[in-house]
Design a protein that fits this description.
2 domains; Quinone Oxidoreductase, Chain A, domain 1; 7-stranded mixed beta sheet; binds NADP nicotinamide-adenine-dinucleotide phosphate; 6-stranded parallel beta sheet; about 325 residues; about 30% strand; 8 helices; alpha/beta; Rossmann fold
Length: about 325
């Protein structure tokens, strides 16, 4: 097995602050040590992968590197009794694709503690349509459903055409929540209404920069993926006892807000960190995604590319131009 060669994306430093990407052959023995060797069937593209693939040291410190924070495939070798050759598994989060060789490759080798058995009801391909984006959306929805009932009012989803946003809309719609979507892509209105968005706001409409401490409370909950002024406006516009989840910063890492939504309306701001989600909760979320939370339109939410087709998708996601999810066929 050690001599087995496989195809992988390799990102290299090609000059001062300049990085290049190519698809090349690697050998299994070059993979990091780990208890479980997985032959990857499918991976998926997330915003973080694009950062890693373009030399962002906040995500990946050392190059050459193979990105890919998501992988789903079949166990080839295992030194841990919890997994056997032939098992179908999902590997996402932890250090995969950050500083550990990732899923944009036909093999990954990882600690057994990172591996989730594929739940019944989900194919390997479907698990990567969700990928980290869908998993994060589901963690956000989980936090909302604990405190906000479907009939309580509308849920706002920001960055709505993106991976996390589109998955959140699809899951919430399936659970009977009415949603409004914030999007910078007017051309994606049909896509968003197809996911169940009852109302679509432009980014300008979702941004109120007057500095007022509170705005009219119109949302019962918010799934935010962008941060900055849009998140601040959403918090100020959340009604009594509303729940706001926050997972991303594509607009800004800043949050220009005061305490009034929290102390006058009892609004909760819940941080979502999929990377370090505990294994028991991780399995619980995957179980929901495989069963009653699985959106009817799941298989239409992703476009499929090969390793060679990833290049232009990476450029597109970096420009905020993706609509829905991108899955990568390896040995699928
Ligand atoms: N905390 C976690 O565990 C976790 C996990 C996964 C992802 N994330 C983070 O969540 C965020 C979204 O991830 P993703 O995979 O969904 O990315 P994505 O597919 O690129 O989607 C992001 C979406 O945000 C919108 N957007 C882009 N630039 C914007 C700007 N300047 N201002 C306002 N909206 C903008 C765009 O949607 P519209 O054109 O429709 O507005 C874009 O499609 C990223 O910051 C990512 O790092 C965090």
């Amino acid at each position: 097995m050690a001599d087995t060669t496989f195809r992988a994306m390799i990102v290299e430093e090609s000059g001062e602050k300049s990085f290049s990407r190519r698809i090349a052959e690697r050998r299994v023995e070059q993979l990091p040590d780990g208890e479980v060797l997985v032959r990857v069937s499918w991976s998926s593209l997330n915003y973080k992968d694009a950062l890693s693939a373009s030399g962002n040291r906040g995500v990946t410190k050392k190059y050459p590197h193979t990105p890919g924070i998501d992988a789903a495939g079949i166990v080839e070798e295992s030194r841990n009794s919890a997994f056997r050759p032939g098992d179908k598994v999902i590997v996402t989060s932890y250090d995969l694709g950050m500083n550990t060789s990732g899923g944009f490759a036909e093999y990954v080798r990882v600690p057994a503690a990172w591996v989730v058995p594929l739940p019944d009801g989900l194919s390997l391909r479907e698990s990567m349509i969700y990928g980290t984006a869908g998993f994060t959306a589901a963690m956000s929805v989980f936090a909302l459903t604990e405190r906000v009932a479907p009939g309580a009012g509308q849920i706002l989803v920001t960055g709505a055409t993106g991976g996390v946003g589109s998955m959140a809309l699809a899951i919430l719609g399936g659970l009977g929540y009415s949603c409004a979507a914030v999007s910078g892509k007017p051309e994606a209105a049909k896509f968003l209404s197809g996911l169940g968005a009852a109302r679509i706001l432009t980014r300008a409409e979702a941004t109120e920069g007057s500095g007022k401490p509170l705005l009219k409370g119109i949302w019962s909950g918010v799934v935010d993926t962008v941060g900055g002024e849009i998140l601040a406006t959403a918090l100020k516009s959340t009604d009594m006892q509303g729940v706001v989840t926050c997972c991303g910063n594509v607009a800004s890492p800043e949050l220009p807000i005061n305490v009034f939504p929290f102390i006058l309306r009892g609004v909760s701001l819940i941080g979502i960190d999929s990377q370090n989600c505990r294994m028991a909760h991780r399995r619980q979320i995957w179980q929901k995604l495989a069963t009653d939370w699985k959106p009817e339109q799941l298989n239409q939410l992703a476009k499929e590319v090969s390793l060679d087709g990833l290049e232009k998708e990476i450029e597109l996601i970096l420009r905020g131009g993706q609509v829905g999810r991108v899955i990568v066929r390896l040995n699928g």
